[in-house]
Structure formats: structure tokens, C-alpha cells
Amino acid sequence: MAIIAEVKKQGNESPAAMIRRFTKRVQATQALSKVRGERYFSRKLSKLKTKRRALDGIAKRVEFTRLAKLGKTPEKTDARR
Fold first, then answer.
1. C-alpha span between 24 and 27 (Å, rounded)
2. Residue 81: inside a domain, yes or no?
3. Is the pLDDT of residue 14 over 90?
4. φ, ψ for residue 33 (rounded to 5)?
5. Are 69 and 75 in contact (CB under 8 A)?
6. If DSSP codes are grouped into helix, strand and coil, which group holds residue 1?
7. For 28, how many CA atoms within 13 A lie in the half-sphere containing its CB?
8. pLDDT at 80 over 70
9. Which residues span the domain enclosing 66?
């Protein structure tokens, strides 16, 4: 992994001041904003996966209508009760 920000202690600098300098340097690189921006990114599905998903949906619909005609589908229940 690449080093994004590096800070070395200067003379008799306190650890708190060194941490403050480090956080400022990290903020300047905008590394965290890039990572947070990519956190929930999801790629688009490929054409093949899209087609397969569509075909699966069609097959399920056909099967459901066949079962409905035979009277074998489960009855809807009211979930609010």
C-alpha cells in the first residue's frame, strides 16, 4: 500500500501536536474523501447478467401464472393484522 502522509517528530514536539499535523496532512491529500466516495459504489451489471436476470423473471412469472390457473398459488394474507 502506498504511503499517503508521513510525519516525523520535530525536536521536542508533543505527540498531540504531531497527531494534529498528521491529520492536517491527511486532509490535504483528500484520501479519506476518495475512500468514502468509493465506499458504496457498485458497478453496473454486465449485459449477460442483465439478460439472465430478465429470463429468470420471465420464467418465474410463467410458472406463477400456470400455478394460478391450477389454483395452487398461496393465498395473499394481510400483513397488517
1. 5
2. no
3. yes
4. -65, -35
5. no
6. coil
7. 9
8. no
9. 43-75
Residues 54, 36 share a domain: no
State residue 37's pLDDT score. Answer: 87
7-11, 36-40, 60-64: range with highest mean pLDDT: 60-64
Whether 73 and 67 have beta carbons less than 8 Å apart is answered as: yes
Give the ranges where 7-46 is alpha helix by DSSP (H): 15-29, 31-38
pLDDT tens profile 20-58? 999 999 999 888 888 888 888 888 999 999 999 999 999
Residue 66 falls inside a structural domain: yes
**2 within a domain of the structure (yes/no):** no
How many whole angstroms separate alpha carbon 17 and alpha carbon 8?
11
Element (H, E) at 62: helix 47-70
Q: Domain count for the chain, please give it.
A: 2
